[in-house]
Amino acid sequence: MANTKKFPPFFFFVFFCYCCFSVSSSSFVPEIKVQQDKDEPYVGVNIGTDVSNLLAPADLVAFLQLQKITHIRLYDADPDILKALAKTKIRVIISVPNNQILAIGSSNTTAASWIGRNVAAYYPETLITAIAVGDEILTTVPSSAPLIMPAIESLYSALVAANLHTQIKVSAPNAASIILDPFPPSQAFFNQSMSSVLTQLLQFLSRTESPLMMNLYPYYVFMQNKGVVPIDNALFKPLTPSKEMVDPNTLLHYTNVLDAMIDSVYFSMKNLNVTDVVVLVTESGWPSKGDSKEPFATIDNADTYNSNLIKHVFDRSGTPLHPEITSSVYIYELFNEDLRSPPLSEANWGLFHGNSTPVYLLHVSGSGTFLANDTTNQTYCIAMDGIDKRTMQAALDWACGPGRANCSEIQPGESCYQPNDVKNHASYAFDSYYQKEGGSPGSCDFKGVAMITTTDPSHGSCIFPGSKKVSNKTSQVVNATQASGANTVRFHGAKTSTFNKNMHVLFVVALCLLYYSLIQVQLR
């Protein structure tokens, strides 16, 4: 018989514990060491300029400050806007348009000139934080793909020469379509035809500690997968466990499409052996209007998506794969670009109309001070300027008639009768109807003759209906706070993940102690 050596029971105890803790620490999810942004996660906005009567730069900056918007992205390096941003706390990403990439990538001198003209001339008075090189070049202009890295490297070299490379990052925004098989996220991978360029890009981003810029739209995922992706998942609406998307390989639960898209990017980077680059969402949003082929492009859906997106970022709940990392997001976009070509939805992604009136009121209460365009501020519905009297009178008649607005205060001798003109009376009637409808989307339109404002239109002894509501708000707020507590829904986030991991470790420790006790009994 061969001489067999028996291991002492304590060895099996140690080996068992080692195996259990090894499994516990991995949880079958690949470890991805990503460097978290030094700054807190934020929500910014994209500013497109295909807008008729776009605000003058000084007025635009004043509007951004009024709305407490602290991060913006431009699709060029507009000198007037950059000049107007000087000595404000607004941080800006400037862009190299697609049609300038060839020249910059072909000449270090051209790149240096571009940095001198568009960056060094304004920084640090204007807080330029990054340069976006092109926009979705790999998918929209694939023939220009070989130019991306030469342009990026040339611009970075120019920043180094100007000693600005540590303050200003360089990256390139990409469409979600560079990723194939995005769900489940653990199976995602970059389009292999682009892998050469992407590998170079990711190595550069890793070396310079810069983010990978991604344009991610759950709206398009939903539209292209109707019947497969429920709209509630796309809109960040609370889900029952049965409706959550589960990655069968990692068993991670996804409560919304955006998190799944972000994690698909992390897994795709992991497949190229890059694990220290953070995702920056440079575009995301939902259109408020569309043609017959886009029935889900509605004000309600746009309001729901963007409101919940803002809350999700400020909740700092990360993603199921990386609950410790919350990507910052730039909403597409600030203004409706009414000059954009069809389809209709292309002109209706904005939070505001070009005249700075809100397209809808975001529900972002509790999300810090971002955006004054919020239901936490009292809002009113008033008549727009420049509307002919006949059209205004028809809207007034509807509000006081079929609309059942309370128009008693604009009757002769009452407090809001003066000034006695159609516009003044219409404003009161519109606000009465708007407040009666609870400020719901679409209740301040009246066929395009009304607008929402946060400025109280009350004057003298004439108190508008919205103002009357303010005095009754205290008790309503208390009741609403008490009621909302029972219905709070939390996304899977860092706290939940940490709790689960701690419970897992405690369970393993208990198993180890139980096993050790059994060994002691046997030894006796």
Q: Approximately how much beta-strand content do the residues carry?
A: 5-15%
Name of the CATH homologous superfamily of the largest domain: Glycosidases
Number of separate domains: 2
The N- to C-terminal Cα distance equals 29 Å
How many distinct beta strands? 15
Mean pLDDT over all positions: 83
Cα shape: globular
Share of helix, binned: 25-40%
Note down, in words, how this protein is organized.
Residues 1-28 and 469-502 have low confidence and may be disordered. With 524 residues, this protein is an alpha/beta fold. The protein has two domains: 41-350, TIM Barrel (Alpha-Beta Barrel), CATH 3.20.20.80; 378-467, no CATH class. Helix content is 39%, strand content 11%. The protein has helices spanning 9-26, 57-66, 79-84, 101-106, 108-120, 137-140, 148-161, 195-208, 218-224, 231-234, 257-271, 299-314, 389-400, 422-436, 465-471, 473-485, 494-523; strands spanning 43-47, 71-74, 91-96, 127-133, 169-171, 174-175, 179-180, 189-190, 212-215, 245-246, 253-254, 279-284, 329-331, 380-383, 450-453. α13 (389-400) runs parallel beside α14. The chain contains 17 helices and 15 strands. β12 (279-284), α12 (299-314) and β13 (329-331) form a beta-alpha-beta unit. It has a nine-stranded parallel β-sheet with strand order 5-4-3-2-1-13-12-9-6. Strands 7-8 form a two-stranded antiparallel sheet. The protein has a two-stranded antiparallel sheet with strand order 10-11.
